[in-house]
Amino acid sequence: MSHNSIAVYGHRGWASSKVVSALAASSAPIKVLYRSGSDISSLPSNVAKIEVDVNDEAALVAALQGIDIVISLVGHEGVTRQHAFIKAIPKTAVKLFSPSDLAARYEEEGLRIGVNAEKDAVEKAAQEAGIPTTVVLTGNFAEFAINTYALGVDYPGNRIIFTGESATQPINLCTRDYVGAAYASIFASTPISQLSNRCIGLSELKPTGNEIADAFEKKHGRAPLKVVHSSEKIDAEVKTGLEEKNPFTLAFYCRKIWGSGKQVGMVGKDLWEVEGYEKSSLEDLILKGKLGQYRPMPPPVLEFFEAGFR
């Protein structure tokens, strides 16, 4: 079996660190491109490390020699830096670019949210440059959706906000471990001709709000606090957030598309299955306590979302 040589940009994030570890555990040769001052001490020893300023085009072109696939895993603040790869890749033998996404194919309203618009602009720029791409969509991370307040779900506090029809509508979720395994499965050895210009969806579990609430009740031994927010209320939250450029608008938009039943379809129909991987169930995550922590949220953020439970 032949393997693709892969360069990764963005290795320290909550999700990206797991993806890099999974790629490093494959047999594919992996090279991490990192910025000056970036901590690389946790990277596996079998991963090549190259410091590079991506805005130095000549240096980036040199760093991409011998690379088949470039995978970007930058967080929200780094999305626009990916345009440097779009300028450099045509001057290399790189065959495929996977821009950072790890979300969903949002409709027009969702693309008005800053970071979503920036991701969309990167993908369109790559297409215009004639660069084959593979976008990976996860819906929402389970750790984010269930173990933070952002989507109105409070696992340790045994509380849930039903928005619109989210009590009966499913939400597409993936754990960080599953996403890492999927990236390795997709990119390590799959022929590039089978990946070019695909938008690949991942789906580990799809619980409804009621199913999450039932799992909470079994876990805590009592019914969770249930708060209901109408579709009209969330529409107003999203509209106001877009007008005021509120940083929490993306969370409210995610609640809206869950409650409207649209979220599951936004990962598309081209779903990738990781061979031999045992997917997590709601029972595993909630009842057996296997749900991991998401990155810590600052107290002001927690206070903002706390108000929704009152």
TrEMBL record:
<keyword id="KW-0560">Oxidoreductase</keyword>
<dbReference type="InterPro" id="IPR008030">
    <property type="entry name" value="NmrA-like"/>
</dbReference>
<keyword id="KW-0521">NADP</keyword>
<dbReference type="GO" id="GO:0016491">
    <property type="term" value="F:oxidoreductase activity"/>
</dbReference>
<protein>
    <submittedName>
        <fullName>NmrA-like family protein</fullName>
    </submittedName>
</protein>
<dbReference type="Pfam" id="PF05368">
    <property type="entry name" value="NmrA"/>
</dbReference>
<feature type="domain" description="NmrA-like">
    <location>
        <begin position="4"/>
        <end position="223"/>
    </location>
</feature>
<dbReference type="InterPro" id="IPR036291">
    <property type="entry name" value="NAD(P)-bd_dom_sf"/>
</dbReference>
<dbReference type="InterPro" id="IPR051609">
    <property type="entry name" value="NmrA/Isoflavone_reductase-like"/>
</dbReference>
